[in-house]
Give the backbone structure.
Amino acid sequence: MKQGTAKRSIYGVHPGVAMTIKWIGELKQKTGRTLEEWMKFIKKEGPPTEETRRAWLKEQHGLGTNSAWWLAERSAGKGEEMGDPDAYLETAEQYVEKMFAGKKEHLRPLYDALLKLGLKTGKDVKACPCQTIVPLYRNHVFAQIKPTTQTRIDFGLALGDIRKTPKRLIDTGGLAKKDRITHRFEITSLKDIDDEVKQWLKTAYDRDS
C-alpha cells in the first residue's frame, strides 16, 4: 500500500481513502491482526463467499459491521483502491469512463460542462468519483453529478431547508432522509446549464463554508 503524494489528476482523492488508511494503520491494535494477517486468515479459515465471510467475522470473531464488511470485501479482491491515493485516482477515471459508456456516452459533454462549472466554484472544490455518481466536496459534499437515465443527468445540490426555489429545482426529499443532497436540476442539454443553475450551485457552495 502506497501512501505517497497522489499523481496529478482533474479529480481529488476521496475522503474515504484517508479514513481507510487510518483504519488499516489501527487494525493490529484494535483487532490483534494486521490487514495482511487478516487476509491470510480469512482465505485459509473463512467461508468461501464475501457475504458469508462478513457474517463469520462478526459472529465468530466479534468484529463490528464496518470492519467485517471491509475485511470481507478486501478478501474478495475489492476495495483496494480505497487504501491508496494513486490507485483511487486511476479507478476514479475508470468509474467516469464506465458511467458514460454505451447508451449514456452522449451525456459526457453535459458531465464535462457540469464538472468544469463545479470545479470553478472555488479553489477548495474537489470532485471525487464513485461508481455511479461524482460528488463535489468543499468541507462536505455540496453538489453531485449523476447520470440517472439515458437522457438525463441529475445535478444535485445540498441546500438544506431552503424553501423558496424555482419550479425546476426539484426537492429530492433528502432533508427528511438526512441526505446531504436535498434538491436537483434535471440536465438534458447544455442550455439547461444556465445562470440559474450557476446561482444555486454557488448557494450550495457558500452554505458549506
